[in-house]
UniProtKB/TrEMBL annotation:
Highest rank taxon of the organism: Eukaryota
Alphabetically ordered keywords of this record: Membrane, Transmembrane, Transmembrane helix
Organism: Lojkania enalia
S-adenosyl-L-methionine found in the keyword field: no
Biased composition (Polar residues): 10-27
Protein name: DUF7729 domain-containing protein
Transmembrane segments: 248-265
Domain DUF7729: residue ranges: 32-235
Residue ranges of the region described as Disordered: 1-27
C-alpha cells in the first residue's frame, strides 16, 4: 500500500487501522464543524474580545476551515471525530481549500492577534484561549499537510487514527503541532501513516516559531522506543525558513484536557 498526498505525490506505504465504520451514507444532518463554535471566554481585554468577535465572523478565516483550530476549539469537530463517516466528510472539506492561500491568511491573523491593537496584552499575560488560538493559527500548515494524508484505499490517516478502536492513542501525535506534548507511555500504532505524519512534523520542528519545535523531539524519541530506533527522525530537521510570529508558548485549557480525557478514556 502507498500513501499519497492530496496532490497525488506518493509517499511511504501504510496499513489501514481498524476503525469504527458506519454503513449508512453520510448523515443528512451533517454540517461542517467551525472553529470557536463554543462560547468564548469573557476573560479578554476589550480590544482582544473585539478581535475574536471579528475572527469568528471573518469569511476568509472560516472559508479555510482550519483543521488546526477545529482540533482544539470546535465541539462539532469533537463530535465528528467519533464517526468515521463524519470525520472523513469533515476532512474532505478542510483539505479542499487552497493550502498556500490559507497558510498566508493564518500567518497574517497570528500577527494581527499579537499586535498592540488586538491581543498583545492578553498574549503577554498568557491568556489560555489567546495562546490556544495563536498556536492553532501558526500550526495551520503542518496540520493541513498531516491531516490530508491518505492511504491507497482513499482513507485519511487522521480518520483511521481517531476512530481506531484498538489503539486509542493514535490521534495523539496530531496535537504536537499545537504545542501539546504526547502523554508519557502513549504508544501510537507503528504504521506508515504515523511514520509519514512524523516526517511532516520533523520538517517544521526546526522552526522555533512553530509550537511543534517544543514537542517534536520528545515525541519522536518516545515513538522510536515503541517502534524501533530508526522509525522516525529522533530530532527535527534543520530550519529552512521561519514562519511569522513571536516565541511560542502554550497553556492547554482545562476544557481541552477534559475533552481529550473523555474522548480517549470514556
Amino acid at each position: 500500500m502507498h500513501l499519497q498526498r492530496r496532490d497525488g505525490t506518493p509517499t511511504i506505504s501504510a496499513r489501514a487501522s481498524e476503525t469504527t465504520l458506519e454503513t449508512d451514507a453520510t448523515p443528512s444532518d451533517f454540517t461542517v464543524p467551525r472553529a470557536f463554535d463554543t462560547s468564548l471566554s469573557n476573560n479578554f481585554t476589550a480590544p482582544c474580545a473585539a478581535f475574536f468577535r471579528g475572527l469568528i465572523t471573518d469569511s476568509n478565516f472560516n472559508d479555510c476551515h482550519p483543521f488546526s483550530l477545529m482540533l482544539q476549539t470546535s465541539s462539532g469537530f469533537f463530535d465528528a471525530s467519533k464517526s468515521y463517516i463524519r470525520i472523513t466528510r469533515t476532512l474532505e472539506v478542510t483539505c479542499g481549500v487552497n493550502e498556500d492561500q490559507c497558510t498566508s491568511i493564518m500567518d497574517g491573523l497570528a500577527l494581527e492577534l499579537t499586535s498592540d491593537a488586538n491581543c498583545a496584552v492578553d498574549y503577554a499575560n498568557d491568556n489560555p484561549q489567546v495562546l490556544q488560538a495563536y498556536n492553532g493559527l501558526l500550526a495551520y500548515e503542518p496540520l493541513y499537510q498531516a491531516s490530508c494524508l491518505r492511504d491507497d484505499d482513499g482513507r485519511y490517516c487522521y480518520a483511521n487514527a481517531v476512530t481506531n478502536t484498538t489503539a486509542t492513542t493514535d490521534a495523539y501525535p496530531y496535537y504536537l503541532p499545537v504545542g501539546i506534548e504526547m502523554p508519557p507511555g502513549a504508544r501510537p500504532t507503528c504504521n506508515k501513516c504515523l511514520q509519514d505524519v512524523m516526517a511532516i512534523f520533523s520538517s517544521f520542528g526546526g522552526n522555533s516559531t512553530q509550537p511543534i519545535s517544543q514537542t517534536y523531539n520528545g515525541a519522536a524519541a518516545q515513538i522510536d522506543m515503541g517502534c524501533g530506533p530508526t522509525f522516525v527522525n529522533k530530532t527535527a530537521t534543520p530550519l529552512k525558513g521561519a514562519a511569522p510570529g513571536n516565541d511560542v508558548s502554550f497553556i492547554p485549557t482545562i476544557t481541552l484536557f477534559v475533552m481529550l480525557f473523555l474522548y480517549f478514556f470514556q
